[in-house]
Specification:
Layout: H1 5-20, H2 28-37, H3 39-49, H4 55-65, H5 85-143, H6 146-174, H7 180-201, H8 213-218, H9 221-234, H10 239-244, H11 248-259, H12 265-280, H13 287-292, H14 297-312, H15 315-328, H16 336-361, H17 363-386, H18 390-409, H19 414-421, H20 425-457, H21 461-479, H22 488-496, H23 498-506
């Protein structure tokens, strides 16, 4: 019972003809559905940035109110109610590290959440962590008990780690092929909006002060409540998940709402085609299968390369280094918070630009061209950092802005989109869990090592990121295919070659 190349071509052509009959445009219902689920992405971005502005206030709160390890920190007068300065710094590092550790755990758990609770149920479940974290922040402030603040950062990290798998999966499965890029960018766009809102609310004139910082840190309570209510009562489970549960009628109703049309048979055929392999075999691929089966090899390798490149390209280092560069450029200390806000604004505006470009230019050009510019930009930035004249400090700021734009249109959103697109329904949960776990591990090591690396290498630190981006760029140019508008089968043909695709198609018979 063979499957010829002619049969394979016919199958792919049938899928393409069917996809042309689908409503490929945005509908109002689809738009509000995307906005609702990406409230989780907003919270993740918000929690990444929110601790920056009130840093000194929070350190003071820890120093004056906490009694953790008090026996280890008695002063010469025997006063054990306050931390020493070094212990405060260590606890501050612990707080930041716990956010990343929570993210790693959340990313790893997301596969099991997707498998057991589904896409919609998983998103609703993960809000428990942000709701709990927000409550703990408020209790911490009013009870003068900073230990709860430390726990809240861990819980916010778990929510962020889960959202990086749950949200791209949901968005990928509710969108027609021609809009997968734009809906995928919505995750990164709302993440950058969260960063921007945290920077704005963190101004000392607003919530980043001694009396209102708890409102600043507990703000995720609001989007969490909104997200739970709207997703629970107004928006469905993804059609692909419903079909995999053999709930065909529910899947059809969900598609009719999302596409705003009564006839969705063409798209249902495509979804049945993509999920038929899953229903014929083990329902969900395990982590072991993902690493050992050859059909997943290049999908997994290229996805992990993109995740590592996203974290180790230097974006977090740029935000770490920007305050010093702004100071060297002659910006007054009281105005540096506004200069840093400008970096967040540019990140946000550039991500909006990506939403218009990604389904026109495709994924590969938006990875390759910006990454090439980043390599050149980091070399130029390193030269400018060695030159002490004020004009070169100003040009260093320009280099930072160029890098942020390049990141926002390429390495920022595309790794999440690519990972969701190049795995089938059966493997997507495990694959995204591994990808997000790898992303958070890279983030964790960068958080721990960058300050020491910057102290050791000084202005040359960006050469390290330059090399990482260059190596990643070479891998992408060699192995990462264009996924715009492509089915899972077509992407696998590009990644694994014709013989691998034949194996995949044979399993459908």
């Amino acid at each position: 019972m063979g499957y010829s190349n002619t049969d394979e071509s016919k199958a792919c052509n049938d899928l393409k003809r069917a996809s042309e009959q689908i409503n490929q445009k945005w509908t109002l219902y689809l738009f509000f559905c995307v906005m609702t689920v990406t409230l989780a992405s907003f919270q993740f971005g918000y929690n990444i940035s929110v601790m920056n502005s009130p840093t000194d206030i929070l350190k003071k709160f820890i120093s004056e109110e906490s009694f953790l390890f008090q026996d280890m920190n008695k002063s010469s007068e025997g006063n054990s109610s306050k931390y020493t300065e070094s212990t405060v710094e260590n606890i501050w590092t612990l707080i930041n590290s716990l956010f990343v550790v929570g993210g790693m755990i959340g990313a790893f758990m997301s596969k099991y959440i997707l498998d057991t609770l589904g896409r919609k149920g998983g998103i609703l479940f993960h809000y428990i962590f942000s709701l709990s974290g927000s409550v703990l922040v408020a209790v911490s402030f009013y009870s003068s008990f900073p230990n709860l603040l430390i726990i809240s950062r861990f819980l916010f990290g778990v929510q962020g780690g889960m959202s990086c798998s749950l949200i791209p999966t949901y968005l990928s499965e509710i969108s027609p092929a021609s809009l997968r890029g734009q809906t995928g960018v919505a995750h990164q766009l709302c993440l950058t909006i969260g960063i921007l809102v945290a920077q704005i609310l963190g101004f000392k004139e607003l919530l980043g002060n001694q009396t209102t910082w708890h409102f600043l840190l507990a703000f995720p309570l609001i989007p969490s409540v909104i997200g739970v209510l709207f997703l629970s009562f107004y928006f469905p489970e993804t059609p692909k998940a419903l079909i995999s549960y053999r709930k065909t009628e529910a899947a059809e109703r969900a598609l009719m709402k999302l596409r705003n049309r009564d006839n969705v048979n063409s798209e249902l055929q495509i979804i049945f085609k993509e999920t038929s392999t899953d229903n014929a075999k083990i329902k969900n691929v395990s982590f072991g299968q993902l690493f050992t089966e050859s059909r997943f090899r290049w999908s997994l390798i290229t996805s992990l390369v993109l995740q590592i490149a996203q974290q180790l390209c230097g974006i977090n280092a740029i935000f770490f280094y920007s305050e010093r560069i702004f100071k060297n450029a002659g910006i007054a200390q009281e105005n540096i918070q506004y200069a840093i806000f400008l970096t967040g604004l540019i990140n946000f505006l550039s991500t909006i630009l990506c939403t218009f470009l990604i389904d026109k230019l495709g994924r590969r050009p938006l990875l390759i061209i910006p990454m090439f510019i980043i390599v050149v930009d980091f070399i130029v930035l390193t030269v400018f950092l060695h030159l002490k004249e004020s004009i070169f400090s100003t040009l260093s700021i320009v280099c930072i802005m160029v890098f942020i734009v390049c990141f926002a249109v390429g390495l920022g959103p595309i790794p999440f989109i690519y990972a969701a697109e190049c795995f089938g329904q059966d493997a997507r949960g495990a694959a995204l869990a591994i990808c997000m776990f790898t992303n958070w591990v890279a983030n964790f090591w960068l958080t721990l090592l960058f300050p020491k690396l910057a102290g050791l290498l000084g202005e040359n630190v960006f050469i390290v990121f330059c090399v990482i981006v260059l190596i990643s760029l070479l891998v992408i140019m060699k192995k990462v295919p264009e996924t715009k508008g492509k089915s899972f089968e077509e992407i696998n043909i590009k990644l694994n070659g014709l013989s691998a695709s034949n194996n995949i198609l044979m399993s459908d018979i």
